[in-house]
Structures are given as C-alpha cells and as structure tokens.
C-alpha cells in the first residue's frame, strides 16, 4: 500500500512495444506516478524490484506474461495486465499464486478504453431482454488472434447473463451453411471477426427481439484511448488486493 | 387496484389509429387483460367508465391528450400514455391533477420499445465519461415533429447527467456554420433529425472522448416492437400511483 | 416479343408464398401487366401456357426451380427468377436450354431491391482501389442458408474485379483463430452471416486501405422494396433473349 | 508539361501545417517527384518559381488561397489545392485566370481520400433512384466550418443529379421543428454536421425509397489516407490544363 502524497512507483514490462511506449509517456506526464523501470525483451525483471516498483504494467505477449505475473506476485509487486490470452485455466493459476500473497493486487483487463468497459457493462445489462445477440468485432489486419480478447470477454459476460435469466439458445434456423459463415461460437454466442486495413479496434454488440434491435458499438481510433483506463487501474491496484477482471468494478 | 386473478379491464383511446389497433390486438391476445372499450374521435369517453375500465391506454394526438388525461384521472382511471408532446408545463399540470387523486397512476413514456428504454438508461449512465455527445434520430418522412419525443427525452436525461457530474459545455469550434448544420440544441445537447423513406424509427447516441467513441443505436422496424412495453406499463400502472415518466423504472 | 400497348401476360410460380403474394398484388396494380396464372404446389405448370403467359415469375424453392425453368424455356415462356441456389453448374444448364430456344429470355437475380443492385455495382467498381474487403450480411433468424444469395453474388463480383485488377489476397495475419471467427471464404472474400430477431435483410460491404474505409450498406425493411425490381425485370425480359444475371444491366 | 523520366518538381504551400508536413514527407518518398520548395506563412512565394517548381500543392487557409492561386497561374505553375472554401464565385475567378494561361492546370479537390471520391461518384449515380436522401458528416470538434467541404460538394452533386432526373423535392412532412433539427439545406439536400471528440473525418450519405435504404459511408482515420490522392493529382495536373474539380475524373 502506498503512502499518501508519495508518487506510486511504476515499472513497465514491454516498454519498447507500441502500447508500452505510450504507457511510459503517460506515466511520465502524471504527477502522482513515477516511472522507475522500463523493461523489455533481454532485460532483467529484477530491474523492477531493484527500483522498488510498487506496480508493474504488463503489455507483453501471451507466451511470457504468465512468467512475468508469477515473478511479480512472488516479489509482492502488484500488476496491471493488458496482455491478452487469459483462459480460465490461466486465471485459476494467477488466483492460486495470489492466495499465497494476499496483499498483492492484480488487474487483468481485456480493454482499457472507457467506452469498451461501458459497452461490456451495458451488454450484460441488456442481455436478458433480447432473444438474439451476436458480436461483430473489427480490427486492423495485423492482429494475430480472432476473436479479440474483448469479444471473448463480452461473449462470456452475455452468456452468463442469459443463463442467469433462464434464456435458452439464440434462435437460428440455419441448416445450409458455408463453413464459418455463422462465425465462432463462444459461450453460446456467435462472434464474427472482421479484419481490414484502415480499421483500428472496433466492436459492435447486436441485440434483437420482435421488431427492434439495439446496437452497442465501440470504436478505438488510437492507443491514446487506452491511457485513462491504464491510469485508473494503476491507481486502484495498489489498494485492491486479489484478482480483478476488467475495469468495470473500478469505475 | 386490481383483484388477483381477475383480468385487468383496459380501454383504448385512439383505438382506430395505427398504434391503437395494434394495442387492441395485443390486449386481446393477453389472458390477464380484457379489452372493455375501444374509443376514437367522435366516441364518448364515458364508454370507458361505463365499461369499468381500470386502465386507459392513450395513443391519440397532442391536442386532445390533456383533456383525456384530465377526465381519466377525475374518474379514478389509471392511464398509460404513448401520445407525444409532453412539455414540462404539461407534466406539471398532470401532477397537479394527480395530487387530488393520490390512488391513480399515470405512466407517460416517449417510447415503449425495450431497446429504446435501455438506450436512454445507458445514455444516462455513460454521459459523465465523455466530453462530447450528440443525438441523431432518423424517422420516416411522414413524421410531423422534429426532434422526436424520444430524442428530446434522451437529450434532457443526458443534460441532467452532465450537469450532475459537473461537465461543462460540449467542445465545438464551429464558427462558420450554414444555418441548421449543427442541429437543434436541447438542454445543451445537439440533436439531428433525419427523415427518409424506407426508415421506420431509429436513434443513435454518439459519445466521444480522446481517441474513442461509443455509440448506442436503437432501430424499431415495426410497431410490434412497442407492444411488450405497453403490456408492461398496463400491468404496472394499476399498482403504481402517481406520475411515472418513461419505462426505465418499471424494468 | 410483346405487342405494343397490349399488357404483358404474366404467370406467377410460388403464388401463395410470401414473395409470390406480394408479386401478384403488384402485377394487379400495374396497367401494363396482366396476371394470367397463379400457380403453387399441387397446381399444373400447364396453367401458365394455357393462359398464354409471356413471362413467368418464379419465387419457389431451390428443389423445384430447375424443373420450372426447363419447362418454361421449352414452352417458349420467358422467366424472371427470384429463387436462390443458383450455382455455376445450374447456370450452365440454364444456358444450354436457352441455346435451343434463342428467342427466350431468363433473368435470374439474387436481389430485386434497387439499393442491393447498386450496392453490387458499386462494390465491383470500388474493388480495385482497396487491399481489404469483407462482407457482413444480416438477416432474420428464420433464414436457412448462410451466406445469403446476395452475399455470395457480391463476393463473386468482387473476387472477379480484384483478379482483373491484379490484386493479390486480402491481408490477414490471423494465426490463432477460434473456428469460424473469420467467416466463410467465398472466391477469396470473407463473408460473415449475422442472424437476429428484429432484422429483415441487410448487407454491408466494407472496403479498407491505409487510413480509411468505405462502407456500402443496404437495408431492406420489407418485401415491398423488391417490387420495383421485379417489375423492371418483367418489362425487360420480354425483349431480352438469353440469360441475364442480376438487374445491374437492366438499370 | 514534364519531360519523361525527369522527376516532377513540386513546391508545397502551407508546408509547416499538419497536412503540409505529411505531403512533404510523401513527396520525399516518391521517386518520380522532387520536393523543391517548402513555403509557409512569412516565406516568399517566389521561392517556388526560383526553384522551378512545375506543380505547387496548396494546403493553406481560405483567406490566402486565392492570392496563392492567382500568383501560381500567372507564373505558369500548375496547382493542386486541398484548401477549403471554394464557392461558385471563387471557382469562376479561377477559371477567368486560367483562360489567360491555357497551358496551366489546376485541380481543386474537397477530399483526396479515394474512398471519399468514390462515395461522391456513387452518390451521383444513386441519386435518381431514391426519393429521399440526406447527408450526415461527422468530424472532430476543432473543425471551424459546418458542413464540411466534402459534404457541400456531395450535396451539390446530388442536387444536380436529381434535377437532371426530374426528381422533385425530398418528401418531408415536418411542421413542428425545433430550429436546426432538420439540418442545413444545401442545393435542396439536408446536411447534418456532427462534432465529437474521438472522431476524425467521416461522412454518410443515406438514400431511401419504399421499404429500403442505401448508405454510403466513408471514414478517414488519419491524414495518411489523403496521400495517394494527392500523389494522383500531382501526377495528373502536369498534363491536364484547365480547371478540374474533384478527383473523380482522374481515377
């Protein structure tokens, strides 16, 4: 837990990546935060503990993020994670590490844009009122995973809300389908991943019932849109032990 | 207040209009409701009291709705109102009538579609997180009023939420404007009314902040979309004395 | 070929279906057309020839449409076809039948809405300027085929235009995909089929290049939107021997 | 007229502005172009003629662009203009200057993005098929003019196409309007200007007829989207004497 009036000491993992650079700049502009370590491939994680980082922000890759998390939690450093690829199995492992370090906080968020967080909140709220729902996410063609982490998380949230409301499966008479046309099925929800030059990061949740539809659409036009959410998470995680999924509870 | 297991006795004002006909059909299909009076231009309002209507549904026009409401409240009949044109002055008059009949309930809703109700709820929730917000409503070209009642109500809700959050005016550097280009200003919010053949009833609320936008869009494709909300309001109003604006609190 | 000033004699196959009924009503309202035969399951095709139909409109099903076409062409009756399911193989068979009856005309259109026809024309025109393109079609959940016939035809048109312009494959770095997320691949173009209550018939073609996107979107809200195109095809086919695919050339 | 294989000598006016800087970088990366003069406020226009510029690109402001154009035409230098504010009166003056210098070319374009150029071409083509049409343009809130130059040009194109097709006024029953709700009227077409943080430069043209709508939407996410069009215009203008409005004819 940080002292009053002292800036929070922050390290950044993946500091030379596109998101990492933006995070470093944003921390430097914030009076209540101090950037104490910039770490990337080939650097020692110990740089973070040597610099007495209280929080580490991780924008790395799915293949190294679990090792990073394990090491930080062991060191008693809280973590804000923007890296994707968190399956239920991975989340369970993080929880087991945190059980042994009850004072450490970890925030793992699929999306740090305030609009995306609200989109997920609204999708959860709307789910029980509509028989039909599908997710269409749209990203630049350099993205390697489909669907996006945000879409996966949204589908999971909607699936849980439908189950809690006793809604059955989404109506669909399709019997003659060219393979893939109807998208991926995530927790019972159809998800479509569009990739195109010109796009950045976009998602639409389409709800439908008799005679009407409701669309929730979020558009991220540049990485600056994620910075307010990253700051919010850094400031919250130092006083929030345990695992937090998404920024919804921090708003 | 209605007895258990007895159907609610309902009268419809404007019963020969497009919405009124749909309401009558919907009531006839509902086991817990009984259609006891169908009243339109040239018919006596007393038909509703003679038939012992407990609730009257009013889809008439702005020039007669106030007389209808006054009469119903005097008779002790609760009312569900879908007619548009309710200014703050009109609402104050309805409240003053209800003060003398504390057991009577009135629900006045700008829109009975569940998606529209949620759109307004979400707009209120999102308002404080975005510096920018505008409303674009789109309707068929036979509509006589612009903006729509739903857009006016949404603007009012957003304006109040911004004021409560201490947000200032929406940023806008426009200094060279062809008259009307920037829309109407309702409670500080710009509202644009699009009219086109092929359209039915649509509204988009656009929120924006640094690097991102969030859109809430509702599309009504036919009048059937309003019926679940009308039923909800009829069933609620018999046990809900006083004035209720919008369906938000009934969900 | 029809005589001047005499109405064109039209028969309708699938006359009791939803589209068929609308077509019959539309023909009845047109002074230059005469509805001479309404035929559906269980009726004799000979009713059309007995009534001296010059044109037959076919809105039936993929399993009977080929027999209908063969019979009409044999009888020397021109045909306007709105039934879906026309593969290249089927089109070749229709051509071979027409070779023996050079005076007969057949128009097969995946979509009779003017907006859909223009959407396809514009998609063909835009294709060579954008590295990326995907199709998202959205329909009511009672639809049995995915993608829609219009989407298949649009993909084919775009694929051909890209090939003619020497464009390579659409850029896509996806390597970690939940099966189906990236849609169906039709002639090299990704197609996504969304199904939801509240929807009618909608399609969006998304083009993208560096820093910009262009979207062409068509929305059909009811079957009346197809009638002007059906009339156009009926009037054209009597003077247009051979096979015509789509309404594009008739505009 | 430029010699074969020699790079075209280009000067840039407004070279220190946001668009100007991007144009300079783009010219520097192009083998067939040579950047010979970068001119901004306080610099001499003669720098362009001293450097033997064959083409000048002008991204300045409406208050200086006419003087720039007059000077360039007098000097026999062709011009590509991206500055906005060209009224019919201004265009007539440019034409009168060109009459005296028949070998000089001027291209004035409201938008250099290929998607915007196609949007305008398609809008012109579609106009005669739809009774209803409206334009909704959306930009960042730092924009000073409303509607945008692109929207004004699109409205003009559509207005002319409707007149040529004998279409009357757009249907609109509005009689109770909050001032501005129905937008600005440009050549008979309603134009709505939305301003919001998070937006860059976007425009939608909505066409409607019975039961259907067709939407053409262009989104520019960053200034890089304009560069291919600027290059196209530079290369074309050296061999294209006289005044050319828009890039449509250069595609």
Automatic annotation (TrEMBL), chains A, B, C, D:
List of residues binding NAD(+): 14-19, 40, 82-84, 109-112
GO molecular function list: 4-hydroxy-tetrahydrodipicolinate reductase; NAD binding; NADP binding; oxidoreductase activity, acting on CH or CH2 groups, NAD or NADP as acceptor
Domain of life: Bacteria
First-listed, main subcellular location of the protein, grouped into a coarse class: cytoplasm
EC code: 1.17.1.8
InterPro entries: DapB_C, DapB_N, DapB_N_CS, DHDPR_bac, NAD(P)-bd_dom_sf
Localization, UniProt: Cytoplasm
Active-site feature positions: 139, 143
Pathway participation: Amino-acid biosynthesis; L-lysine biosynthesis via DAP pathway; (S)-tetrahydrodipicolinate from L-aspartate: step 4/4
A GO BP annotation: lysine biosynthetic process via diaminopimelate
Function: Catalyzes the conversion of 4-hydroxy-tetrahydrodipicolinate (HTPA) to tetrahydrodipicolinate.
Family from the record: Belongs to the DapB family.
Protein name, UniProt field: 4-hydroxy-tetrahydrodipicolinate reductase
Organism: Allocatelliglobosispora scoriae
């Amino acid at each position: 837990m940080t002292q009053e009036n002292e800036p929070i000491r922050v390290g950044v993992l993946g500091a030379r990546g596109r998101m990492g650079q933006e995070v470093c700049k944003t921390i430097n502009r914030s009076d209540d935060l101090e950037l104490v370590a910039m770490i990337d491939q080939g650097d020692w994680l110990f740089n973070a503990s040597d610099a007495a980082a209280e929080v580490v922000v991780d924008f790395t890759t799915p293949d190294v993020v679990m090792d990073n998390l394990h090491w930080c939690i062991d060191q008693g450093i809280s973590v804000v994670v923007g890296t994707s690829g968190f399956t239920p199995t991975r989340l369970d492992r993080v929880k087991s590490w945190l059980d042994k370090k009850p004072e450490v906080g970890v925030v793992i968020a699929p999306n740090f844009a305030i609009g995306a967080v609200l989109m997920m909140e609204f999708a959860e709220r709307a789910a029980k009122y509509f028989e039909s729902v599908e997710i269409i996410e749209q990203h630049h063609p350099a993205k390697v995973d489909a669907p996006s982490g945000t879409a996966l998380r949204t589908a999971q949230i909607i699936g849980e809300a439908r189950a809690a409301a006793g809604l059955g499966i989404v109506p669909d008479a399709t019997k003659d389908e060219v393979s893939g046309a109807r998208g991926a099925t995530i927790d019972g929800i159809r998800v479509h991943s569009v990739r195109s030059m010109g796009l950045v990061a976009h998602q639409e949740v389409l709800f439908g019932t008799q005679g009407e539809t409701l669309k929730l659409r979020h558009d991220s036009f540049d990485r600056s849109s994620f910075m307010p959410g990253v700051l919010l998470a850094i400031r919250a995680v130092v006083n929030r032990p345990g695992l937090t999924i998404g920024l919804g509870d921090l708003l």
